[in-house]
Amino acid sequence: MGPKRGTPSSKAESKDEKRAQKRQKKESKKRRKDSSASSTEHVNLNESTETRSNLLSVKKLRLSASILPSGLSDVKTSIDRCIRDFLLKYSDAVDGTIMGYKNVEILADGRGRIVEELPHIHYDIRCDALVFSPVPNARLRGRVTESFHSHVSMVVFNYFNASISASRLREAGFEYDADKESWYNIESEDTIEKSSYLVFAAEKIHEAVGMISIDGSNPALEK
């Protein structure tokens, strides 16, 4: 027999959930800040050619990077800042989120161009990029960060937020123990603890302001 279910305090858990959501937002901002450089320069995606199809795939991207005249003293570094500013943001042009890149090549013999009287100098670039493109029903692996009676929160690849609702957890044979504030498997009595890993199916993928979040289903504890 598994542990007995308790009666959760909705007000207390509501406060806990709000605190957890604030922590998740702060962590997401910190991860983005650590992984990208702020700049007035920008990158436009013109073309992408996929070389390996999967949730994580390597794509050859053709970019247009625009730098200010102050960046001409070190064009390669300025272009690198442009690409880094695009990291970890969802883009329709690549149908996913760029996780990393390499083999940056400046086209047109390294020459840039000026459009009309605007100050930016535009460079055509080609590079290999690692792109995360989740699709519905894909199997993912997430590390548990919070556990509530309403859902379990996770991070995928230590960056993307994911969650599994209480209804989906119960469908998979889990029940909530209010005394221990955790979910457990009714048959095995294994508990979903903080930092546990769940393998789950991506049910819905949401995108807002360049950030991806995932609703999961059919979870299983990784042993």
UniProtKB/TrEMBL annotation:
Residues of the RPA43 OB domain: 134-181
GO CC term (a single one): RNA polymerase I complex
Pfam hit, one: RPA43_OB
Biased composition, class Basic residues, residue ranges: 20-33
Region (Disordered): 1-51
TM regions (residue ranges): none
GO biological process: DNA-templated transcription initiation; transcription elongation by RNA polymerase I
Keyword tags: DNA-directed RNA polymerase, Nucleus, Transcription
Compositional bias segments (type: Polar residues): 40-51
Subcellular localization(s) per the UniProt record: Nucleus
Domain of life: Eukaryota
Protein name, UniProt field: RPA43 OB domain-containing protein
Source species taxonomy: Eukaryota, Sar, Stramenopiles, Ochrophyta, Bacillariophyta
